[in-house]
Amino acid sequence: MEIKLQAKDLHLDIIAKSWKTVLYNLCLISAGSLIFVVGMNSVLIPSKLLSAGVTGIALIFHYLFPTLNVGLAYFLLNIPLILLGFFSISRRFLLYTLYGMSFFSLAAAFIKPPAAAIEDPILVALFAGIICGVGVGVILRSIGSTGGIDILAVYVNQKFGFRPGSVSFFVNAAVILVGAYFFGLEVALYTLIYVFTSSRVLDAVLTGFNQRMSTMVISQKTDEMAKEIFRKVNRGVTFLKGKGAYTGEERDVLFTITTLTELPKLKDVIFGIDPGAFVVVNNTLEVLGKRHGSRKVY
Q1: Is the dihedral of CA 271, 276, 278, 283 positive or negative?
Q2: pLDDT digits (tens, 9 = 90+) for 16-36
Q3: Strand extents, DSSP E, 161-249
Q4: Which domains does the chain have, with CATH numbers?
């Protein structure tokens, strides 16, 4: 009897955790959608700037046919991309995306914040890029999306490892060219500033909390350095086997991952032990694994 109660309690605990996960992802999608819609309806549309991707196409239709609601146009244009998500990613991702697409479309149709009091088009493009980039980044930190290029970006990221911001930037260039044809080169150039800013902010939101510095050290005192790194920096160390091309001498190469704030302390440890150490520091895009984060499964 006691075993049955424990099994039941475990089952309820799993259900509770599952619902917490679902609510967490829905909150991310909802919050990101609201942030993006505020940027779009208060900055982009009042300034007659374009966006990119499916949102950009919806805006083009809205500017050409003012009676066509942006939210409705966005929903209809997303149907083919939803099919891509259905057949190539996962059913769970599809369900989250259907929610995100519906929520975004309704928010775009009904949330009408006052226009931002900015006249300089460059500042408009930068401001909109920051707001909308944060919105998309928050959405993609979930395991869903609001449809559009987000689906394509996630698909390409899963299949080929390309960064979502870069995928969005290059795909969106085609939409901007269409906008240049209808509304002029100047509008397209300001939109390009917006898209570039948005893509950089998107990447920062997605990976900024997980960026690390990778450091490689060549020295004759790597064993002593490793012990001090364990003690003073509290970071793991891996020894790689290296061989000098000129001398032919074999030597351990110390490899470790730290945060940016820990890097000065790491340098103090290294050069305090061996002032002549050869050190290479790289700014990594993302680090996954023990103590550094985990990979999302869509």
Answers
A1: positive
A2: 567 788 888 899 999 999 999
A3: 213-218, 238-243
A4: 2-209 (no CATH), 211-283 (3.30.70.120)
Q: Exposure of 295 by Cβ count < 10 A (0-12 exposed, 13-18 middle, 19+ buried)? A: exposed
* Confidence at residue 211, expressed as pLDDT on a 0 to 100 scale: 66
CB 64 within 8 A of CB 114: no
For residue 63, count other CB atoms closer than 10 A to its CB.
17
- The answer to pTM > 0.85 is no
Helix (H/G/I), strand (E/B), else coil: 243:
strand
Written as one letter, the residue type at 244 is G
Which residues have C-beta within 8 Å of that of residue 270, sequence separation ≥ 6? 217, 219, 225, 277, 279
Question: Tell me: the pLDDT tens digits for 136-190?
Answer: 888 888 877 777 776 777 677 777 777 766 776 777 778 888 888 888 889 889 9
